[in-house]
């Protein structure tokens, strides 16, 4: 917009100012009109500026001036336009107190419907020019722009070029021009927020959304979460798919760039990474929280997200499983309505990806025809690794996902309760790979997230002691891996292991042997746990059930084989009595 007309606060009000203020106070419209007739543009601008900076009854004075300007006369129309333009400049200057700015904005909004169509068009054009020229500083004046566009749309006919357009068509041309223009990065958030209050058609909304999405690459990374929040609010008007796809594509590209930088040793050793990984992950985490919050308010947005991800994985199912997409879709499981739907989608996608990968590995023709697909396991475990950057909203869903994969694709019971599925020639089937992936998710999550360790251990032990009729070797293997990876850390959860000992006498012999072998490293570092186990085994020795006595003997044999029990001065009194 044009530079403000000079009109600083200056000394005490001049005689002309006092006359205008007196007429305004007395609600004397004719008196105000007479005062205005003797004023030039600069004097009027100076009067408004001084009153605004004083901060008293500015809105009342602006309203009085607008209503006193002669209607139907060119000088009156010019006067109103001057008032609007100057007030807009004052709002953008940042010199006004918040209360004064709100008062002035409210007054201008209420009076906008009194402006003729030509004036509204000229005022809207001033806004477009200001946005194109970088004249929008703090965005305060943009609160008025939706009112002007709405009033403009209701105009009957407006001159445009050599012809005439209806107000609605004129508004469409204006928005098209605006979205085709250059925007300063500093005003993008203000503009995205502003369009929430502008009545727009689907086509106009598409112009706006596409423009905002194109601006992502021009903004600093930390500026994206508030902008995306405004976009998600804007999605209530429509274009949900376009908004979600734009966000997903942008962050998938950022993840890809991050991976390429990490793989390029020269880049990582000699240059600073374009975007620090920690900063990118924190921004992604905040964006995901915004999306989940928006879905809670608008379930249609959640349905569109699932539909969008389903469509994206039709050709290449691994597209759904890249880090940002996985974190996003897992976070949506916190909304109960979508929980089962999301996990079913992920299960189907993972097994499909593993089958496709194995099929390609077994076909030389497909290997030559198609690029090698990304490793499903690597992509999902990348999500686990990235979750350390404050992605607490993903952690619980990762644990659920791990157990779902192990429960769904673990070995099935065959004759006499033995596992029916075995590897052929050392090659795992897709189901076996999915089960192993579930175990890897749980193991890595256990390693990097302390708050969830107790829950993972408890669920593993529960499955071991309650599924005596089903194959549980995959859970015993996971338990063994957890114990080996962090025996000292597990001491904090030793009570859960000791609770599991109470079930030993009721478990099949093979399960008892597998469980004791899995926790063997713990027994080496925890005397109290070893003592608790010996007490349970001694009790089982005198059980009336043969299987319980067999389990006790197996337990003592394992202890004798792996520990120096008798004669050890370091052993506790309970241990000495064996």
From TrEMBL:
Domain FANCI solenoid 1 cap: from-to ranges: 30-67
Domain annotation FANCI solenoid: ranges: 79-296, 394-557
Sequence ranges assigned to domain FANCI helical in this UniProt record: 300-386
Single GO term (MF): DNA polymerase binding
Matches recorded under InterPro entries: FANCI (IPR026171), FANCI_HD1 (IPR029310), FANCI_S1 (IPR029308), FANCI_S1-cap (IPR029305), FANCI_S2 (IPR029315)
Tree of life domain: Eukaryota
One of the protein's GO biological processes: DNA repair
Entry-linked PANTHER family: BC025462 PROTEIN, FANCONI ANEMIA GROUP I PROTEIN
Protein's name according to its UniProt entry: Fanconi anemia, complementation group I
Organism from which the protein derives: Callorhinchus milii (Ghost shark)
């Amino acid at each position: 917009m044009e530079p403000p007309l000079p009109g600083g606060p200056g000394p005490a009000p001049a005689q002309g100012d006092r006359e205008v203020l007196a007429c305004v106070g007395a609600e004397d419209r004719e008196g105000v009109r007479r005062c205005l007739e003797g004023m030039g543009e600069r004097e009027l601008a100076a009067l408004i500026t001084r009153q605004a900076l004083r901060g008293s009854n500015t809105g009342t004075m602006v309203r009085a001036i607008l209503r006193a300007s002669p209607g139907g006369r060119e000088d009156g129309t010019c006067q109103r336009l001057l008032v609007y333009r100057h007030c807009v400049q004052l709002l953008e200057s940042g010199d006004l107190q918040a209360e004064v700015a709100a008062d002035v904005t409210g007054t201008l909004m209420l009076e906008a419907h009194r402006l003729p169509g030509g004036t509204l068009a000229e005022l809207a054009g001033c806004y477009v020019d200001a946005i194109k020229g970088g004249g929008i500083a703090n965005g305060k004046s943009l609160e008025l722009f939706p009112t002007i566009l709405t009033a403009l749309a209701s105009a009957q006919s407006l001159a445009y070029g050599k012809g005439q357009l209806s107000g609605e068509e004129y508004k469409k041309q204006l928005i098209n021009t605006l979205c085709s223009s250059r925007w300063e990065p500093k005003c993008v958030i203000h503009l995205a927020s502003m369009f929430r209050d502008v009545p727009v058609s689907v086509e106009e909304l598409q112009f706006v959304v596409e423009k905002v999405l194109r601006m992502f690459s021009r903004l600093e990374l930390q500026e994206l979460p508030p902008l995306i929040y405004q976009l998600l609010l804007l999605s209530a008007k429509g274009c949900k798919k376009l908004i979600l796809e734009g966000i997903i594509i942008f962050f998938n590209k950022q993840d890809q760039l991050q991976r390429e930088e990490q793989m390029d040793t020269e880049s990582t050793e000699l240059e600073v990474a374009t975007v620090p990984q920690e900063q990118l992950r924190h921004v992604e985490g905040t964006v995901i929280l915004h999306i989940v919050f928006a879905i809670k308010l608008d379930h249609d947005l959640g349905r569109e997200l699932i539909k969008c991800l389903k469509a994206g994985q039709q050709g290449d199912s691994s597209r759904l499983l890249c880090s940002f997409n996985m974190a996003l879709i897992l976070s949506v499981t916190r909304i109960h309505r979508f929980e089962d739907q999301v996990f079913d989608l992920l299960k189907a996608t993972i097994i499909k990806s593993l089958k496709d990968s194995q099929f390609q590995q077994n076909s030389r023709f497909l290997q030559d025809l198609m690029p090698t697909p990304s490793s499903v396991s690597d992509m999902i475990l990348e999500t686990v690794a990235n979750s350390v950057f404050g992605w607490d909203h993903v952690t619980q869903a990762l644990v659920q996902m791990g157990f779902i994969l192990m429960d769904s694709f673990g070995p099935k019971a065959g004759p006499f309760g033995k596992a029916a599925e075995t590897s052929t020639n050392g090659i795992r089937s897709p189901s076996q790979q999915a089960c192993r992936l579930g175990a890897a998710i749980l193991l890595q999550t256990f390693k990097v997230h302390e708050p969830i360790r107790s829950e993972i251990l408890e669920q593993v032990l529960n499955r071991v002691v309650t599924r005596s009729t089903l194959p549980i070797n995959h859970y015993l293997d996971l338990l063994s891996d957890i114990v080996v990876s962090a025996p000292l850390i597990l001491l904090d959860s030793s009570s859960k292991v000791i609770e599991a000992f109470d079930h030993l006498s009721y478990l099949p012999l093979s399960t008892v042997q597998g469980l004791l072998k899995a926790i063997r490293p713990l027994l080496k570092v925890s005397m109290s746990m070893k003592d608790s186990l010996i007490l349970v085994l001694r009790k089982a020795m005198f059980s009336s059930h043969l299987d319980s006595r067999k389990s006790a003997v197996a337990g003592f044999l394992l202890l004798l084989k792996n520990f120096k029990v008798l004669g050890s001065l370091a052993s506790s009194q309970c241990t000495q009595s064996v």
